[in-house]
Amino acid sequence: MSLAIENKTLLLQMNFINGDWCEAYNRQVLPVINPATGEVYATVPDSDAIDAKAAVDAAAAAFITWKNVPAKQRATILKRWNDLILANAQDLGKIISSEQGKPLAEGVGEVAYAASYVEWFAEEATRANGEIIPSPATGRRLTAHKEPVGIIAAITPWNFPAAMIARKIAPALAAGCTVVCKPAAETPLTSLALVKLAELAGVPPGVLNIVVTAKSKEVADVWLDDPRVRKITFTGSTPVGKHLARESADTLKKLSLELGGNAPFIVFDDAALDAAIEGLMVAKFRNGGQTCVCPNRIYVQEGVYEEFVDKLTARVAALVVGPATNPAAQIGPMINAKAIEKIESHVADAVSRGARITTGGQRIQTRECSSDTYYAPTVLVDVDKHSRCFLEETFGPVAPITRFATESEVLEWANDSPFGLAAYFYTTDLRRVTRVAEALECGIVGINEGALAAEAAPFGGVKDSGYGREGSTHGLEEYMHIKYTCQGGLD
């Protein structure tokens, strides 16, 4: 199967600033590596502070007019963008698979997921209603208006290069904000293709600007220091998120931080076991385990532990690993060698603490899987809860399992983490559903369900997993502030 794209105009390798496709000011470039082969797929600008400031200058000039564009007109542009994304879904999916490595079916599926946010916020743009407030005195009229925050700086990750940029940019544009964006250096091409489609949809020059770089700190520092940038939206690691929070304090920027996760997946004795297995397969092995809501700690109650392990091992052992050019592939390569090394260290640590490998547990290298970035889907059993794979995000196709005895015990373990993004549990006891859902310390809970994300639902975490919400009506509010007006002399 070929990953060659039909619409060649989507394969862009330049910055987009003030409506112009341009090289970096310093003329430096960086390679985009196809993780499936280890080969250079494209080269893109390696921008610096000069480009970052130029993007803010363009966004500041454009904001003056964009914020006053009627919501219905902004919605029309976003709907055209949604239509163009869906019309080019196959090519966009191929770009995702070529630079990120995920199977093509997942790449195309991600495009549809990204488009769902664009469509959702196109509709939400016309629903940003204010309030008329009952006055405590005669002769006054009190109102609350929602207004765009201003310039948004969006910093997106490599694991979902289409979905993450859409989930941040669509609500910003819907609210009337302008945007400067830095995609991940590993996967910039998808973002550039989406911005090209936004340009074709009618987004005016300067409203949406994208700067590609491996000099992340240099570019981000420009945006952090510039008081014209009023909000940072970031998806990535907790340490980087905390740095952004600290450094944005001087200009008191608004922040949306979707940070690390360490999701527990709990299977109670009374669970529908086959459904729990299916839910875990969807949640754990999507994108090769490289998602922030992946189950990272699997707790199975004693009564069903052995049966669960046997069934899961059989399912995981049957997964097909290969490049996106193999239509049967279910697990692609990891993003780079550093990711593989982390996975290996987590597995070795767990084994050193007494865990057993029931399937997988090693790199894969065949003629088809020719690069050094493939890792066999792995099941670890009898994992000590102090193992690194229970304490840190593995970000790979490793399912670590341990057993528990009681509900109170597993809830204590599940909440014993600085992270609080997602959690999952399976049970047929309706009373337990309420108890456990309310007791879990996280922003998202899957109850007898492994697929959580939806454009209409609020996505975000608590504790070290960040704050702010993406998607849903709450996602639009993240890009707006409220202006109160009091008009007197009406009596």
UniProtKB/TrEMBL annotation:
Gene3D superfamilies: Aldehyde Dehydrogenase, Chain A, domain 1 (3.40.605.10), Aldehyde Dehydrogenase, Chain A, domain 2 (3.40.309.10)
Active-site residues, as the UniProt record annotates them: 258
PROSITE patterns per record: ALDEHYDE_DEHYDR_CYS, ALDEHYDE_DEHYDR_GLU
CDD domains named among the record's database cross-references: ALDH_F5_SSADH_GabD (cd07103)
UniProt superkingdom: Bacteria
The UniProt record lists the keyword Oxidoreductase: yes
A Pfam family annotated for this UniProt entry: Aldedh
Homology family: Belongs to the aldehyde dehydrogenase family.
Name of the protein in its database record: NAD-dependent succinate-semialdehyde dehydrogenase
The species this protein was found in: Pseudomonas reactans
